[in-house]
Amino acid sequence: MKRLLFPLLIVFTLLAVYSCGDDDDDGRTKFTVTFDTDGGSAVPSQTVKEGDKVAKPEDPTKDNAVFVGWYIGDDRFNFVSTTVTTDITIKAIYRICDAFSISDTKQVYFAKGNLQYHCKNKEWRFAPNQYDYIGKDNQYIADDYDGYIDLFGWGTGDNPTLISTNNDDYANFTDWGVNIDGGNVWRTLTKTEWEYLISRRKNALYKYGVAQVVGVNGFVLLPDYFDLPEGLSFNNGTAGHIDAYHDHSYKDHNDYSSADWQKMESAGAVFLPEAGFRSGRGLLSGDGLYWSSSARSGLRFYNTSFEVGYLNNYSNYCGFSVRLARDL
After folding, report:
1. H or E stretch including 211?
2. Average pLDDT over residues 113-126
3. Which domains does the chain have, with CATH numbers?
């Protein structure tokens, strides 16, 4: 009798173990769900049984971008209702933090500083900080000057130390962008692109304003999508604010410390310092003037107002600041 009971006990035990096994043995096909983070932080794939749902992973992170959602093609993936019936790849979609629309179909991002040129060493660079500018030392402009300049006559990418006051010497435009990162990467905005950026992109009036950053006066541009950092404010360039420029300084509108500006910059904001302009070797302060790739045009701002497009009171021989952009 004992010999009979022992085998039966083994059988019942095996049946009990089998009946308590996991769902891997229910016969359903397993599929692989892959998460394409498009250069963002890695998200591990999942193995999901046919008919089951995908567990929503943590949002990936990516430099200079804000995560929007998970998509398959043009459709946002629904983790609540969608069941798996095959292997799938779900792609992360982002919003670029520092993208600026310059037409209905084109965006750019800006260099993180004004263009600078070392005359003696014949070396180009971007200013270390957005609020940096050379100032009075531009008066020393010359091929043998052992220092940097950042005010250039129009189209002088091939002759940055040109100081002639004859407009005929500035008849041809050579973009400064040919000198940075091997060329054909950075470029100067056209007049039309500056105008669209300032006046015609969506919510344009709310995406610019004067400011003082680390004690430097200038002009702030906000990207197409901007989340104001916690604890900071931004007074934009609506009509009411423009009228108020006659009575108040840059600092009264927006005043940012170094720490404040780091937060604004991380959110995609661009700052154009009021660096003045040069005529020959003479320097004039109190204005911010930035070239476009179109003759006698660009962006001008000053304490009471600003203008964009043709700058009729200025000539191509004037030395303006240059802020290059890169197409997205």
Report:
1. strand 208-213
2. 98
3. 23-96 (2.60.40.4270), 107-327 (no CATH)
